[in-house]
Design a protein that fits this description.
Distance between the termini of chain A: 30 Å
Shape of chain C: elongated
Low-confidence stretches of chain A: none
Largest sheet of chain C: none
Oligomer: heterotrimer
Mean pLDDT of chain A: 95
Chains: A alpha/beta (about 290), B alpha/beta (about 425), C mainly alpha (about 160)
Radius of gyration of chain C: 20 Å
Number of helices of chain C: 10
Strand content of chain A: 5-15%
Largest interface: A-C, 62 and 54 residues
Chain lengths: ~290, ~425, ~160
């Protein structure tokens, strides 16, 4: 694969642009050119999803049809977007009635969904389209003596039959990438549990407790940093550490996987937006062999 | 079909567990010759490893061993242990079976089972009979009442130091032994190849293999067995201490559409309860809880046993399946959440030992055996019987019968009954001339 | 003399089984694995996936459709992954939400987000200020996000929402 269309989603460009920048920089370093998608809408995850199946399918259908026009696969960096696009693609591929209903709507936009393009979550692009050995070859400044806890996110890995990213009960892609970069990955209780993010809509207190439970489990396991593959998880796991129930002196840095890989691949820190991270990632960068750039 | 001279009135029984032994004895007692082929070094099957049976709480070895002697002594039964069927050709009344007799490097006609060799042997390997919780030597018998009472050398681990050979007073060790193929002529084949247990590692969230004090029901059986690796002391594997709060988890690898095992395994509710009762017997002060979705106590004496477990033995039962098991890194205790569905309360429970009760599965390589014999298997992988009502022991291949767990999960009494039934079917076929 | 007596009926479960996602609801054996796995249930006093499915199976249609509980599922799908009968409580409650929305029961939080979405084509239009734009510029990222705010109007007929929010 040498080019892919980036579907940013609503949240990343506004709340975690560093994730977007780091992903583009890392993929380009690894030989994949990333092109922006323009004129798209939100994917409709959670909200439209809960209100109308046809509207939800049409929103994803349009995004997919637009990618078809370019003849390129879609890169989703948010778990919810990845989930929406994949679930709707699955529906449209297998349900003729839904497909024809959506295509009727898309026809008014001069678009058609035929199912030609794939939806790839970032982890699939790194692990499958690029491959671990390519990543390994490109590491120039590995980490040393740092422990990471990988948080995969629910929508990235489930439902497995549809999304097909890693083993949902025992995922390893982020762990493997981190180890290739020289870090040690630690196991922790509740690794496959949710960050609590989707709960923010209805009950912030519960969402926070869920996220904090995750942080506590990571602490017990002795990890120095949490690596994510979805901006929603990243923001949530960061945010809950600022709640009054948590220690203000000992916060665990949270970084998207591409932001973590960036320095190890020799990418300039400015391009990775590390200065924007709410929890200071310097302890992580100090573990780069040869010091941080 | 076949000319009269080629016909055989012998019966081959494949699998020396409790069903196979019963079939062999019942055929032999009617005057026919039986070849009993068993791939392990000893007959006895699963029962040899169990501690107590349900619902009677009989000592498993105690009720089994007389059978083992009976089989070994029977003039009409020829035991071929440490042997495997390689091929079956021919048809009902006239089968030619090739059996691989694996080399034990110990002569059956000379070994008296005295054990001097094992005492000399310097090699220790994890003992599969003890679920790898204990050790055995490279020259070994599976259990004290192994039948035949002949030692076997595990060629994979033997270092050929030959100390056993030097110490054997009867010159029974023979390193020049080779694997041998023997050809048997039989009229009917009875398959009683048993079962294997579901691999609980397919449930990462239950922590087996990772959390030190999560064990399987079979490991539990060996731990409470006086002939087991801890001489019957039920201990935690993490620190050797006595457990005080034991949890039993049912339906691990049974009634699970996601793991390809939608069927109920028939025996696990009862063996789970039996093990829970045994846990209380060992430690009357321990808190013992069984976590279940349904308790299937359908057989004779089963419901009473379940009641007794609750009232007389004080086993607790929670109707709720568990979530994820988390291990405390310091105490190695186990925590999980479970909903007591009868009250709706979500419980946060801690145990110091958890026993996973796996479902039954078709025997290892049953699919290969079925293919070799041209037998149909059902969607759950067991041998398909010709008709559940009219021919529950016959397969689609005339002359090949099936009994015990080879056609589906069964407990011990049902397996024994099936063995007797298969024996009858076999001899009817033989005495009526066979060919149809 | 107290509350009206509810007569159990399977019609609600059948109604849900006809909505994609709700098909397996009748397979539920009420074992509680979902609730044991649910992080929301742990921290909420009221939300219990198994009990909610029980209410569905008993036919408590009005109560379930008007309740906020189906909207508390955070769609993490751990229940779905662990259910041994192949039921997905997450998908069942998704089907309940679709039905509830058709009958006009959508929580305020969702209606508010939908209003922003329909207006802008994406949900964080109000949060994209100069500061965010500057951060993007510093990172060398495109600042004109180019969201399409017209397409969603074609979908209004499928979205049963009051206009006033």
């Amino acid at each position: 694969m040498n080019e892919i269309l980036l579907y940013r989603g609503c949240t990343t460009p506004v709340r975690l642009p560093a994730y977007e920048a780091a992903t583009i920089a890392v993929l380009e370093k690894l030989g994949v050119k990333v092109r922006d998608m323009k004129d798209v809408t939100c994917c409709g995850a959670q909200y439209v999803e809960s209100i109308s199946q046809i509207a939800f399918a049409a929103m994803s259908g349009r995004i997919l049809a637009m990618a078809e026009k370019e003849g390129l696969d879609i890169l989703a960096i948010c778990g919810a977007c990845s989930g929406s696009l994949k679930i709707n693609k699955h529906l449209l591929d297998h349900n003729e009635e839904a497909r024809s209903q959506v295509n009727d709507i898309l026809a008014e936009e001069g678009l058609k969904y035929t199912g030609k393009v794939r939806v790839r979550h970032l982890l699939q692009v790194l692990a499958e389209d690029i491959g671990f050995s390519e990543v390994e070859r490109a590491i120039v400044k590995p980490y040393k003596g740092i422990k990471i806890a990988a948080h995969y996110g629910c929508h990235v890995t489930r439902p497995f039959e549809i999304v097909q990213v890693d083993d949902p009960e025992n995922p390893t892609i982020i762990d493997q990438l981190a180890e290739i970069a020289g870090a040690e990955s630690v196991d922790y209780a509740g690794k496959t549990r949710c960050c609590g993010g989707p709960m923010l809509a209805m009950d912030e207190k519960i969402a926070t407790k869920i996220g904090q439970e995750k942080i506590k489990n990571v602490e017990v396991a002795g990890a120095d940093v949490i690596l994510t593959a979805c901006e929603f998880c990243d923001l949530q796991l960061t945010q809950v550490q600022f709640d009054e129930a948590m220690s203000s002196t000992r916060r665990i840095p949270v970084m998207p996987i591409t932001q973590f890989l960036g320095p190890a691949l020799g990418i300039d820190e400015d391009r990775l937006g590390l200065g924007l991270n709410r929890i200071d990632p310097s302890p992580v960068l100090d573990a780069l062999q040869g010091g941080s750039a | 079909m076949s000319n009269g001279a080629a016909r055989s009135n012998n019966v081959l029984v494949v699998g020396g567990g409790v069903a196979g032994m019963q079939a062999a004895l019942d055929v032999a007692n009617q005057g026919y010759k039986v070849y009993l082929v068993e791939k392990a070094p000893s007959i006895g099957g699963r029962m040899a490893a169990l501690d107590k049976t349900f619902p009677t709480l009989d000592c498993s070895a105690c009720i089994l061993t007389p059978r083992l002697s009976e089989v070994a002594r029977h003039p009409n039964i020829e035991l071929l242990t440490y042997s495997e069927v390689q091929s079956v050709e021919g048809s009902l009344g006239d089968f030619t079976v090739r059996v691989l007799r694996k080399a034990r490097y110990v002569r059956e006609d000379r070994c008296s089972g005295c054990g001097d060799c094992a005492r000399e042997c310097p090699v220790e390997v994890p003992n599969e009979f003890d679920e790898f919780l204990g050790f055995r030597k490279a020259i070994y018998v599976m259990f004290p009442q192994s039948t035949p009472n002949v030692y076997t050398i595990d060629a994979e681990h033997c270092i050929r130091c030959k100390r056993c050979e030097r110490v054997c007073e009867r010159g029974a060790i023979d390193f020049d032994m080779q694997d041998e193929i023997v050809e048997l002529k039989v009229g009917v084949v009875v398959l009683s190849v048993g079962y294997k247990l579901f691999d609980v590692r397919q449930y990462p969230r239950l922590g087996y293999g990772h959390h030190r004090n999560v064990i399987t029901a079979m490991e539990f059986e060996r731990l409470i067995n006086a002939a087991g690796p801890t001489k019957g002391h039920l201990i935690r594997l993490s620190d050797g201490r006595m457990p005080k709060r034991i949890g039993f988890i049912q339906c691990v690898g049974a009634r699970d559409v996601k793991k390809g095992v939608p069927n109920c395994s028939r025996v696990c509710c009862m063996y789970g309860i039996k093990n829970a009762v045994m846990a209380r017997e060992h430690y009357p002060d321990a808190e013992v809880t069984v976590y279940y979705a349904d308790i299937r106590a359908f057989g004779k004496g089963f419901e009473e046993f379940y009641e007794m477990a609750k009232t007389r033995f004080g086993v607790k039962f929670i109707k709720g399946r568990v979530g994820e098991i988390v291990e405390d890194p310091e105490t190695a205790n186990l925590q999980f959440y479970v909903e007591d569905t009868l009250s709706g309360e979500i419980l946060d429970v801690e145990h110091d030992m958890i026993v996973l009760c796996p479902g039954l599965q078709p025997a290892e390589d049953l699919d290969k055996l079925a293919e070799m014999l041209g037998l149909e298997t059902s969607t759950d992988g067991y041998i398909e019987t010709r008709d559940a009502f009219a021919a529950p022991l016959e397969t689609n291949h005339p002359g090949i019968l099936v009994c015990g767990c080879a056609d589906g999960p069964k407990d011990i009494p049902d397996s024994v009954t099936a063995g007797s039934a298969a024996a009858m079917k076999a001899t009817i076929l033989l005495s009526s001339g066979g060919a149809k | 003399m107290g509350e009206p007596v509810h007569t159990p009926t399977s019609s609600f479960a059948e109604e849900l089984a006809a909505i994609p996602g709700g098909e397996a609801v009748n397979k539920c054996i009420q074992c509680g694995t979902c609730t044991a796995s649910c992080a929301v249930a742990r921290y909420s006093d009221e939300y219990r996936p198994r009990q909610l499915i029980q209410k569905i199976l008993l036919g408590e249609r009005e109560e379930v459709l008007k309740s906020e509980l189906p909207w508390l599922c955070m769609t993490c799908r751990l229940c779905e992954e662990r259910c041994q009968e192949g039921v997905s409580p997450a998908e069942v409650f998704h089907a309940v939400r679709i039905l509830a929305a058709r009958e006009g029961h959508v929580p305020l939080a969702f209606r508010q987000v939908m209003a922003a979405l329909m207006r802008d084509g994406w949900i964080l239009g109000d949060s994209y200020t100069d500061f965010e734009e500057e951060d993007r510029e510093d990172l060398g990222l495109e600042t004109d996000l180019g969201w399409n705010n017209e397409f969603l109007h074609r979908l209004k007929q499928y979205l049963p929402l009051e206009e006033d929010e």
